[in-house]
Design goal:
The structure is a homodimer. Helices cover about 45% and strands about 20% of the residues of chain A. By secondary structure, chain A is of the alpha+beta class. The first copy, chain A, folds into three domains: about 90 residues, Hypothetical Oxidoreductase Yiak, Chain: A, domain 1, CATH 1.10.1530.10; about 160 residues, Ribosomal Protein S8, Chain: A, domain 1 (2-Layer Sandwich); about 45 residues, Wheat Germ Agglutinin (Isolectin 2), domain 1 (2-Layer Sandwich). A seven-stranded mixed sheet of chain A has the order 2-3-4-12-5-8-9, sandwiched between helices. Chain A has a two-stranded antiparallel ribbon with strand order 1-13. A two-stranded antiparallel ribbon of chain A has the order 6-7. In chain A, helix 1 packs antiparallel against helix 2 and helix 6 packs across helix 7.
Chain lengths: ~325, ~325
Amino acid sequence: MIIKYEELKAILREKLIKLGADENTAEITATIISENDLDGITSHGTGRFVRICEMIKLGKIKINNTAVKVSGKGSLEIWDGQTGPGPVNAQICMNRAMELSESYGIGCVALRNTNHWLRGATYGIQAAKKGFVGICWTNTTPNMPAWGTKEACTGNNPIVFSVPYKDSYIVMDGALAQFSYGALGKAASNGKQMPVDGGYDSEGKLTTEPSEILKTRRVLPIGFWKGSGISILLDMIVSGLSGGLCVPEIGELGSSTTDERNLSQIFIAIKADRKTMDSKAESIISFIKNSEPAEENSPVYIPGEQSLKRQKIQSVEGIIIDDSIWNGIENRK
Amino acid sequence: MIIKYEELKAILREKLIKLGADENTAEITATIISENDLDGITSHGTGRFVRICEMIKLGKIKINNTAVKVSGKGSLEIWDGQTGPGPVNAQICMNRAMELSESYGIGCVALRNTNHWLRGATYGIQAAKKGFVGICWTNTTPNMPAWGTKEACTGNNPIVFSVPYKDSYIVMDGALAQFSYGALGKAASNGKQMPVDGGYDSEGKLTTEPSEILKTRRVLPIGFWKGSGISILLDMIVSGLSGGLCVPEIGELGSSTTDERNLSQIFIAIKADRKTMDSKAESIISFIKNSEPAEENSPVYIPGEQSLKRQKIQSVEGIIIDDSIWNGIENRK
């Protein structure tokens, strides 16, 4: 189906209010979900709405709780998300990191006891739009084997880097697994192969066949041992600084999809000199865009560029949402 | 050949002094190179010594220049490396980031006009040994095709994450290409295949054959589009914050191996609560170590663990250095 941004936002807001969300929480959450859909990232927008509703009903997301400061010194603060809604908490904490950056130069908030932030890019974009470099990451439930293991014993711990660019921004947002379970599931049900190896089959061989990877649950870290190593360090830093749960402890909460909660996140903002930042980014973009493409006549994209294009189109033409996702939301009482 | 740490350091120090280095610069540079070798990372230790000497002689490394503060506000400072020796500049700037972190909580130094830092882990370890979380990265000459291109139009921009751990540390240090040119060259001359796909052959197919990748120069970013995207953002941030050269501008200096200079680097230090950090890292390590190994009876390693083991062994038994590397150093006047 196709729906206008404002209409989508109003529907989601109303559903959240019916579930007990106050006006402000419902507004922020509905805005973030609708913006993710507008950018074409329904997997991290409406695609997770039913699960969010479920978690609110089960009391696993305490919908009207928001992050509060626990302690802090200068440019570094620790906040507690009080198991409130992930997008609201993340927005509060990136905002606070920006305030700290405004006062000190670089600012950092370590957040514990929060929930899934949906799309990490949201908070990188939030920082970049205000002229800050943004760096943030989250841990997750154990969902990726560390290098040398068969079991999901680390998280895919998505990380985000963003910079302001002229009247816009450039953002890179990626989990440290080559593909999400969502992407594997979608390909499997469409009978498609992954474009590159995404994990291991039951014989321990690399494969592009999503159904095999879904069987073994052995998804591939980006760069094999490299992505695995980064993921382990990100978890140590985020849990060690926030005092929140680390990946193994999140795993102890349970293994159902509604059990991924009480996550730990880091938000870093750095005040940038806009002129220097723009001029360097421009040189980098122009150099890359003018390089020989891997496939003839195939455009070369800068991180986030395709989402920005989609945003522009869907702002006018409306947002395309899979019927299966939309029916789930409509049937959700 | 096998050489004791102290002897290696003395030889390197003397050679640097003969090239005009003052006592302090020679001591720091020789120490860092020898420690990298001690950890088994000769590729980023003695393996680069001849090139360093060359660059000093050509005036491309100004051996007795060191980084000076350009500007700063609170927890964020910009420094200029004055094209001095990379390891000395990097050590100064991570040290300054730690001082800023001590005062403010999180501290950041953006460094421009510096040279190759050898092994990034050195500066992560420096921070972790003093009880700080360390995050640092560098840009490089264009040496990796951005996703969608055939030409080396971005850098492999190595990034480092480190945490203190009990009386030691855990460190992840990785370039964003799957393999370095050094590793490809070594495998090619030994007639070996890479353990996983490392780049593209001349038909545009992924390959483990190092000689093919060396021909096309199409090395693979970790996680394909993901590593490419991270690399582009790291370059934008490091050059945008420091005001130093970005990857395309470093490329303009020339394409010989002694032309990779005037790099830009970021050093971030975050004061950690040691007790929390240790307890979280311990949970993470124990969870991973107790997971089912991918290969039966194959040990599972934590990032940096193998280097620490090598360090212990080589501290007692001496450092193994390839004869080809050693002969190069000995013949270097």
